[in-house]
Each structure stands twice: as C-alpha cells, then as structure tokens.
Amino acid sequence: xxxxxxxxxxxxxxxxxxxxxxxxxxxxxxxxxxxxxxxxxxxxxxxxxxxxxxxxxxxxxxxxxxxxxxxxxxxxxxxxxxxxxxxxxxxxxxxxxxxxxxxxxxxxxxxxxxxxxxxxxxxxxxxxxxxxxxxxxxxxxxxxxxxxxxxxxxxxxxxxxxxxxxxxxxxxxxxxxxxx
Length: 180
Known about the structure:
Elements: E1 14-19, E2 22-28, E3 33-37, E4 46-51, E5 54-59, E6 64-72, E7 81-95, E8 101-107, E9 110-111, E10 115-117, E11 128-138, E12 146-153, E13 161-172
Antiparallel strand pairs: 1-2, 2-13, 3-6, 4-5, 5-13, 6-12, 7-11, 7-13, 8-9, 8-10, 8-12
C-alpha cells in the first residue's frame, strides 16, 4: 500500500554553500519526511506549491504533525559549531497550535535538549527562522555518522492549520545568512 505521508529524499534536494571557510547546508521540503494524523481536509493534509522559487509545504488540517530528516555529517565541516533552523511562515489565520512545537537534533551518541516553540507568536510575521538562535550542535571530528532532526507536535488534539515550511538550514557559527 502506498503511504500518503511524504518520504523525504536527500539526493538533489539540498544546496551546499560556504561561509567563513565552513560548509553550510540548506534542505528544501522534498528532503524531509512529513507524517501526520487526522482526517484529510478535502482529501488533503498538505499542499505542495511554489512560493517564489522555493518549493513549500503548507499544512491544511491535521491533529498531529511530525517533520523529520537525516543528513550525513560528512556534508558539514568537522569540529564546527552549527545552528539548525526551520524557515517557516505561520499564516494569520493559523489555528490549533495551543501546544508548543518540539524541535530536536541528535548526533551519534549525543542528543541535544529539545526546544519548545509557540508558533502562535509568529502568526502573520512572514518568513522566520525557528527556533530563535537555532538549535546548536557541534559536528564531531569523526564525521562518519548521520545527524537526525525533527519538528513535531502530537499532544494537542485540535485541528492544526496555517504552517508553511520553506526549508531547513544548517548554518556554521561563522555564517550570517538571513532569508526574508
């Protein structure tokens, strides 16, 4: 049986860039897994569309949400501090975000503490990077493993809508890149 959930595919769905001699990485929305729960709104949970030149995912109606992904650490610079950021927009008519969204990143043998974000704070503010300041982690000298990341909310049983995801960024500490 074919799943209606999105299975991310890393190949061809990321951009590498450099800042201060360190490797940065940006994933588009086709590179992430998206899992949800609930009944479809008009037969759909998510809408894939283009906004400018970016492929975006818009949440139409779900009870719970999980966005996950993995990247090889070899795509990042070893011994370098990074920030993980989700570039999102919360529409002014968003609803169902009464519980915070949980953001996590984990490296082989090391789990970074989760960060809780109240998405209502960003409603109507355009594109923003969350969490503020990013999820910080350091790539180990041995970059043979994979980094896992997630954004999820599965506690609140209200219909959720109004979240648009544009990309996931891995910024080296030296980078000062801001997308508006």
